[in-house]
Write a structure and sequence with these properties.
There is one protein chain. This protein is α/β, with parallel strands linked by helices. 34% of the residues lie in helices and 20% in strands. A hairpin with a 2-residue loop joins strand 8 and strand 9. Helix 2 crosses helix 6, helix 4 runs antiparallel to helix 5 (213-229) and helix 4 crosses helix 8 (323-333). The relative contact order is 0.18. The model is unreliable at 1-6 (pLDDT under 50). This is Wax ester/triacylglycerol synthase family O-acyltransferase. Residues 15-77 form the O-acyltransferase WSD1-like N-terminal domain. Pfam families: WS_DGAT_cat (PF03007).
Length: 349
């Protein structure tokens, strides 16, 4: 692999005085103009001897999986491990029918959403996050007989319910279920490093109204298992490949637009890496800047034995307290012999 040359115009060092809320403050700073739409920021860490790195790239250039590969290529001392590709499978008729129904629902929500509340562009974007040891999350998933992403989504829905219960409006609108757009990578062996967006998506109802965490898990699992069983990823990819480019672009805008669902909920797993910029990687979070009226972006990023729940949201939502109960929910749901062991769960950040 040839050495990667990084132009200094794309690397910026941020002091605590310049960016007191790093990396949240980056969401208000535009990408460099007149050149490749990416940059790399470095800032002091929260603890002595540590530092933070933020890699930003325009979504038109790369999606999350492609950006993660770019980041590892830039930072890793050794040849970076490739991101795990997606295996192509034959689409099913049931999956294709579900895609059409999903698009119809999204279009209906888009038309209706034109009269619904959309955050003003002046409403600033905020960032909140929390992390949990990956082993705890994996044990919670095994206990629930589901995937790590399923248990993370269910725990987040339960955290939303707990947050609603602490507010005056807890018995009303804030306990209603709502749809989240779930992006799915279609990067296979041939396309895992190419430029552009290699994504499809489906809608999943977040069960905020569930009366228990177990019910929330069951409802999330039922939807995600149906998506996997009917090969929604492959059905959506196949239909997009058959469609003319303008039709596919229109369908993607309908599915991912802010009027379709109030939240995009993605997940990303980093491969194990060694030294990055001369230091050991401790964790990672995938962020997304909310544009065009988008309300919130949720990410679950797995890296170096840690799962981070990151939430970008409009300031009027006041959602900064939600990631903490997400973590506590997972710790409590894990088997007792795992969650109660001394030294296995680090203190809250």
């Amino acid at each position: 692999m040839a050495p990667v040359r990084i132009g200094l115009e794309h690397v910026r060092w941020a002091s605590g005085h310049e960016l007191p809320n790093f990396p949240e403050a980056l969401l208000a700073i535009p990408l460099p103009a007149g050149g490749p739409a990416w940059d790399l920021w470095c800032a002091p860490g929260r603890d002595e001897g540590r530092f933070q790195v933020a890699f930003r790239i325009h979504h038109a250039v790369h999606d999350g999986m492609g950006a993660a590969h770019d980041l590892l290529t830039l930072l890793c001392h050794d040849v970076p491990p490739l991101m795990r590709p997606v295996e192509r499978m034959r689409p099913t008729i049931t999956g294709c029918v579900a895609v059409v129904k999903d698009l119809t629902r999204a279009l209906g929500g888009r038309l209706k959403g034109r009269s619904d509340y959309l955050p003003e562009l002046r409403d600033p974007v905020r960032w909140a996050w929390e992390e949990a040891p990956e082993r705890i999350v994996q044990e919670a998933a095994r206990s629930a007989r589901c995937t790590v992403n399923d248990i993370c989504l269910a725990a987040f829905a339960w955290a939303l319910r707990l947050d609603a219960s602490r507010t005056a409006a807890g018995d009303g609108a804030r306990r209603r279920d709502f749809d989240a757009v779930i992006p799915m990578s279609i990067r296979d062996h041939r396309s895992r490093t190419v430029l552009g967006n290699q994504l499809v998506a489906y809608r999943l109802g977040l069960p905020v109204s569930a009366e228990s965490l177990e019910e929330a898990v069951d409802r999330v699992v039922a939807q995600s298992q149906a998506a996997r069983l009917h090969r929604r990823r492959d059905a959506t990819r196949w239909l997009l490949e058959l469609s003319p480019t303008p039709v596919g672009a229109w369908a993607s805008r309908v599915m991912m637009g802010p009027c379709t669902a109030p939240m995009i909920a993605s997940s990303l797993t980093f491969p194990a890496v060694g030294s990055c910029l001369g230091a050991r990687l401790l964790g990672a979070s995938m962020m997304y800047n909310l544009t065009g009226g988008m309300r919130s972006y949720l990410s679950f990023t797995r890296a170096q034995g840690v799962v981070r729940c990151g939430l970008a949201y409009r300031a009027s939502w006041r959602a900064n307290t939600i990631p903490a109960p997400w973590r506590q929910t997972l710790v409590q749901f894990a088997p007792q012999e795992v969650s109660s062991g001394t030294g296995t769960i680090p203190p809250k950040r």
